[in-house]
Structure formats: C-alpha cells, structure tokens
Fold this protein.
Amino acid sequence: MKVLVMNAGSSSLKYQLIDMDNESVLAKGNADRIGIDKSFVKHKAGEKAQVVIEKDLPSHKEAIEVILSLLVDAENGCIKSMEEIGAVGHRVVASGEYFKEPTLVTDESLERMKKTFELAPLHNPAAYTGVMACLAVMPNTPSVLVFDTAFHLTMPEKAYMYNIKYEDYVEYGVRRYGAHGTSHRFVSGKAAEYLGKDPSEVNIITCHLGNGSSISAVKGGKCVDTSMGFTPLAGVCMGTRSGDIDASAVEFLATKKGMDIHQILTYLNKESGLKGLSGGYSDFRDLTANVAEGGVKGARAQLALDIFAYNCKKYVGSYMAVLGKVDAIVFTAGISEWNGFIINNILEGLDVYGIEVDKEKNTDSCPVPVKDITGPNGKVKVLVIPTNEELVIARDTKAVVEK
Ligand code: ADP
C-alpha cells in the first residue's frame, strides 16, 4: 500500500508518499504561502530533480490538487494514477483527551476533531482544513488522523495534573498534554530495537531537541512524563520559547512592559528562549558561530547554550529519578543530530550514574539510523537516532485502514 502523509500548517502543507511494502519514500515536498501571494509547491520524486511550481494557491484544496498532479505527472511524478494511493495519513498536533489513538476520518471523528481546535488554535484548524481539502479531491480514499500528543496520554494522573483546582481540570481539560509524541514514540521504539529488547522491557529518556524541544520519560514503551505542558511553551529553553517560567514573573513582566495577556504570550513564544537570551539568535548554527567570534555577542550566545544544556540536564536528572533503572538516553532532532557538543554538555558529570559519552564517537553529524556514543565505562546507552515522524504516521494509517 502507498500512503500519502500530510502535515498541514496554516499556510503550508508538507507531504510524503511512502510505499509501505518497503517503507521507502517515493516523493516528498511542500506547498508554501497558501492563501498568501507568491505561493509555490516544491516537489521531489525519488532520484529525479526537484521541481518548483509557482502557482496561485488560494486554499489547501488547490495545493492538494497541484501535489496530486505532480505525483502522477509523467516526467516528475512517481505513480501512474491517484488510485494507487491507498490511504492518506494526517498529522494532527493536539488530541486533547478526545482521541487516544489514530482514528479513521468519519463524520463523527471530524465533529470530534473540532473540539480540539482551542487546544492548538494555530495547528489543529489547519490540519482540519487539510483533511477537508483531501476529502474534496480524493473522496474515496480512506483518511486517518494521527495525533502528536496521543503517545503522552499514558502519563499517570500525578504526572499530567497541574496543581490547580481539580474541578477546573475536569471542566476545562487544563493539564499537561506534551508534544512531539510521534517522535518520542519512534525513537524510543528504535532504541529498544537497537538494544535487542521489546519496548516493554526497557526504560528510556528521549530528548527531542530541535527548534521546539521536549524530553520524555518512557517506561516499558509507555510515556510516563514529558517536559512540555498544556501547550508546547513549557519545559526546557527553546529556539524562541521561554520554557518553564513562574506565572507570577509573567504577570510582573506584562505589567512593567504594558502588555496584555496575548502580547506577553507572544513574547514568551516568539521572543524568548535562545533568541531572547542571545540577542536575536534562535538557531544553533548562528549561536555557535557567535561563540567562535567571541566578544559580547559570543558571551551572550554561550550563556544561551549553557542555559539550554542546563535545562535539559535537569529534566534528564528528574526523569532518571522517575524511572529508576534507565537503559538508554536517546537524542533526536536537528540540535542533537548536528551539535554533538551539546550532548556532552547535557550529560557532563553524570558518570557517577553510569552515564558516559564517548566524545570521539560523538561527532557533529548523524548519518546512520542509530549512532551509539556510549563511553567505554557507560552503563546507560547514549544514542543519537534521527526521528521519522512521517513513517510513524504512515504505519499508523496503514494499520487503521487494514483493521
Ligand atoms: P524543527 O523541525 O523543530 O524546526 P529541527 O529539528 O530542524 O527543528 O532543529 C532545528 C535546530 O537544529 C536549529 O537550532 C539548527 O541550528 C539545528 N540544525 C539543523 N540542521 C543543522 C546542521 N546541518 N548543522 C548544525 N545545526 C543544525
């Protein structure tokens, strides 16, 4: 079966067509600036050259029409007809407590999906638009909703509850939901496979360190705690997000700066984290370049990197306490895969707990499916594993439609 994986943002649509017989990517690309000017679709099938189609895309529906025409195109495509697409899997960021597992698109599940909008107002309505657009263009192809947060729904009450009035949790669903669940699931599963164990036999700490970063404790294949919260603003320092901060400091700062609640949240989401600390640089590449340059800019970049590593270390340490026995610590996403030094900094000094990194093996790029950087005396495996959320979505989609 060939599965089309869709990841719709408010003005973008990323896609991959995956052949599930051998889990190979037949084509991938993205439509961008949907509903804005200068919209385009970038598409690449297998070894063929990338093509860029510049075309007015007033909505996701037109974007999907262009994507499908590219997939079946004699010159740039990879399939003969749309009928070859057995199912479409849609990435949905937030499930709330409304969806516990990947779910077939039906009138009922679409209605239920609308209830999740307020939990991810930037992402979930966009995903819904993507689903509707696909249904309009491919009405007979089954579609499946795959939720990022579903992996975290196994957390026990004591981990997901906030210490507020219980009635408010019940009434409004205010609790920790986490994020990046599909990635934490994929890399923890891969790590178990690498250790030659069933996921139920191992405890793993997974660190997804990218523009957004989150850390999870995975016990016997199930998530028992995670650093992100009600939204992806919580947890460790991120590219532009503050991570954890005292709510009273937020109120104090908003008052001082004359900001309303929306403005201060934009500040915490878009102007804080590495960007805020370093004086405008959210990307690790810029930060490391600034450190090399030295001076005041370099010192601020160094401070941002130190805080990032320290925040991550504290979560790793607390999840060691949560899990007791830890079999592996896994690092994934752009920062982990390209910046070995940050893993050294996060795990530095943890050798007393059997955690040791082989600095020679821990080079700055991750070309292999699993890079084992455990030091010679390490009792806990330290692994770098590139994530593959699209493959998880495709697998889930196939499983649901074949059920
Ligand atoms: P997201 O998917 O959340 O946007 P990524 O997982 O791509 O983010 O991670 C982005 C981070 O990874 C950035 O800080 C960036 O500097 C770093 N990164 C990505 N690619 C590279 C690279 N080739 N070299 C160094 N750092 C990289």
